[in-house]
Amino acid sequence: MGTAPLLNPFSDSFDRDWRAVRALTWASLGLALYGPAQAASLRLRPEAAPRIPRAFHRLFCRAIGMKVDVIGAPVSAKPTLYVSNHISWVDIPVLGSRILGSFVAKSEVGQWGMVGRLSDLQRTIYVERERRTRSREQSNVIAERMAAGHSIILFPEGTSTSGRTVKPFKTSLFAIAEADGMDATVQPVTLAYTHINGLPMLRSMRHKVAWIGDMDLLPHAWELFGLGRVRALIQFHEPVRPSDFANRKELARHCEQVIAEGLLRANRGEV
After folding, report:
1. What local confidence, expressed as pLDDT, does residue 99 receive?
2. CA gap 187, 241 in Å, rounded
């Protein structure tokens, strides 16, 4: 009589932990390599600074098994305001691997260890979303950065989501559209996470990539690192200009609609 093979109940856990350790090791090495180079670049050649973070983000995505597919392309004109939906902390390396620009993020991001360090090196603009009295001042900072020729990446939902739908856009940071003499290009961008290890993303799996609510960053990152191959899809939509719209609310509404439609198509597998 044959004997059934013994199964190792810890094998799957070991594989996940090994993938996570490998990803964290490569990410740390990348930060050790690119961090000083970026710091030096910010001092010596500020105009070239965004290219070093982009190189790091591409390395980081490869290290954690993130496959980034792109439809369309970022506009070549500068300055550009890229407007994207927001799902996870990993949106930063995913979008940063394809866009030369600085992010607008809530002030807490600067305190998130490696993520905060990366944000600082990419000259992230930190905003206090709860203090509406500062919205005009913060919009002016964005406008000044863009007037100097820099592109900006904005998450106007103001929070991350599960990736199934888009939350209503907050219009306050679109005030840049009303700044004197500012008619920068605005490009809506849809970001979706569609597959894990070649299988379509199920609703029950979205929390492994999406970072929402009061999730702790480190446990979430460790689990994501151990997933294996994750597919991200970026859709660059038709760019517009603020002067095409009557006011910032109409501009925000247009971007929200275009991005939401793109997300719906991506989640249905129609893209």
Report:
1. 93
2. 9
